[in-house]
Amino acid sequence: MIDLKSVSKKVSHVESVVPQEKSRSTTGSAGSASDEVSRSSRLLVGVGKSDPIGPVGSPLESVIGIDQRVRILDTELSPWRMICALRMRAPNGAAAIGTGWFVGPRTVVTAGHCVHSTQFFAGWADTIEVIPGLIGAGMRPFGSVTSGKFSSVDRWIDQADPDFDIGCIHLDEPLGETVGWFAIGALSADELTGFLVNISGYPSDRGSGNEQYHAVNRVLQVSDRRIFYDVDTFGGQSGAPVWTQESATSAPLAVGIHAYGIGGTPGSFGITANSAPRIIPEVFDTISGWIDEDGGSPTG
Amino acid sequence: MNEGVLCTGRVVARDGSPVPHAFIMIVDGPAPVPEIAVVADDDGRFSFGLLPGEWTVQARGEAGAGETRVTVRPPETGFVIAIP
Fold it and tell me: What are phi and psi of A67, to 5 degrees?
């Protein structure tokens, strides 16, 4: 097991993380905004374990076979409002879009490459605007906040290893108290295999990064540090939550951070799949540390 | 992925005029590709790093999408993506 060290943009010290063996989860929150049940959630969110859903094709991109993404129109409701469109700007003038999600009142998790990328930003992002539950262009039910405080882990910063592509945006405002936050869970490979995983985010090919799209399908394979699935995604959905749900009435449990299209899947696996770094115990501890840095969560 | 070779590009319309604020995605290549979407500047220009090799880069603007196959070689590679 590798000790992950949290690396922050403006904090020089690093924290050691003690690896844990037991699977654990945090407690999520639906937030203080409307408790109306989302019709989209009831109809679209995949629960439990299943055989594969729908046709599987042989694609070039990360929409695998027929595009099964569905636009979410009630993003002002839970869990969609916990998911945020991200607008990244870098000191070198580069700009990009991605997706993030709340894990605490002031803590938004995303892909590591959304906060630090030698490839796209020549280092750390300068600022990221976080827009929870963006419905469409200019339609921001909870406004937006901009932050310049980010964290990632040393294995991403130093080596850009896709297995460690995780990052965090620290907010000054407790916007998560309003929109809520996902529980995170470190599940074993056996627990994850065959589970339906849900991914929802802000792709660039539909709605120009202003509309939230959801898709669901089965976990195809699990490696030590990644989850592989044929859930349709596209550029702009980097950082989106990969979540499971035990039943229609249970809370969503985030188990991964979507980061790669099919090019990120080793050919030796013999599958066409998109992938996410798993929330394994070290990642769980790292994210928990980030939440604590931001003041913790009342129920976490 | 490391920083790689500097790749600079421009998104243009059929008539050659720049497409401002187009989204650029790396959709295929010899290394894992993050699912981020880069945003072109006011003049349709963008840049990022890629490892040497054959890559497919796609651009999307209000008028539609286009893509190009790019052979990335050091020290620097430039290309244009036309949106038909």
Answer: -65, 115
Nearest residue to A109 via CA among A88, A134, A82: A82
Q: Are A229 and A264 in contact (CB under 8 A)?
A: no
Residue A13, both tokens: 């010290």
**Chain A 132-161, residues with CB within 8 Å of chain B CB atoms:** 160
- Distance from C-alpha of A210 to C-alpha of A12, rounded to nearest angstrom: 35
A–B CB contacts, 8 A cutoff, strictly below: 108
Q: What is the distance between the alpha carbons of residues A106 and A176, in angstroms, rounded to a whole number?
A: 6
Mean pLDDT for B21-47 is 93
Domain ranges for chain B, please list them: 1-60
Residues of chain A with pLDDT under 70: 1, 10-22, 51-66, 264, 299-300
Give the per-residue pLDDT at A59: 43
pLDDT at residue A258, rounded to an integer: 95
pTM for the full model?
0.91
CA atoms within 13 A on the CB side of A5: 12
Q: Given an 8 Å threshold on Cβ–Cβ distance, is B27 in contact with A160?
A: no
Assigned CATH topology for domain A22-292: Thrombin, subunit H (2.40.10)
- Position A161 scores a pLDDT of 92
| C-alpha of A203 from chain center | 13
